[in-house]
Amino acid sequence: MLSTFLIALREGLEAALIVGILVAYVVKTDRRHLLAPIWTGVAVAISASLAFGGFLTFTSKELSARGEEMFAGTTSFVAVGLVTWMVFWMKRAARSLKIELHNKVDTAVQIGKVGLVSAAFFAVAREGLETSLFIYSNFKTVSQTSEPTIGLILGLATAVLLGYLVYNRAIKLNLSKFFTITGVALIVVAAGVLSYGIHEFQEFGLIPGENSYAWNTESWLPANSIIGTILSGTIGISTKISWVQLVLWAAYMAITLRFYLAPSKADAQSKQPTLSRA
């Protein structure tokens, strides 16, 4: 539940802020007639994301056991790659995101309503499609109860509420710190998805070491126990994990967090003291 909540909150708020920037810009520039194309693009993007999530679920259920292992492992690796790219992209692009979106609106207006619908669609669809893939992959690592779905719904609802309050200036949210903290949380969740993908490929036979366990506590701590479910659903550490899973999980966490938390060039330059001439 916690992992799906974090994913939905982070990705949902990004999408909500993007929509808020687009809407605020056309309202501020007294072009309210452009709101309809923007909301059309947003609606199409949301529909496409839901359809993509449904496609992943349907495809997974229609495959054989062996095919499902390959499909689940592959989608897990793709999801980890996308979410890793996304958190680094947001860290780098956050400073200029508003200006970039404003420029896209101005360019799209010259093309016409279709251009504006497309601009809104692609701005939101990137977040939506990534979320669908990552949510699907994360669902495979957590329990089969309704809790992950509840976490997803609560995360999206909270994201929409926060986005609305930020847009109306009802609250002040330090977005830099928010995205840094949630970025770390997503990297931790992605490490768990990576571990799951490795396990699926081990079962398929593409990665060795399936039965070489770093530990196996299922005799006294089952995977469906409260502790086992929490560990598997948050940090990706199961009650039974192979050495290959553990080593690659730890390597991904160490390397990714090291680069993600390192100060950017812009931050480093802003902290350098300026010398004044006498």
Rg calc: 21 Å
Sheet-strand content, in percent, reads: under 5%
Please tally the helical runs, counting DSSP H or I stretches of 4 or more residues.
10
Query: Alpha-carbon distance between the termini?
Result: 60 Å
| Total beta-strand segments | 2
> What is the count of distinct domains?
1
Class by alpha and beta content: mainly alpha
- The amount of helix comes to over 70%
The helix/strand series, from N terminus to C terminus, equals HHHHHHHEHEHH
Major sheet: 2 strands, antiparallel
Strand neighbour order, sheet with most strands:
1-2
Shape: elongated
Please tell me the overall pLDDT. Answer: 81
Quick summary:
The chain is mostly helical and 278 residues long. 76% of the residues lie in helices and 3% in strands. It has helices at 2-28, 35-62, 65-93, 97-111, 113-141, 147-167, 175-204, 226-234, 243-260, 265-270, and strands spanning 213-216, 240-242.
Key structural traits:
mainly alpha; 278 residues; 3% strand; two-stranded antiparallel ribbon
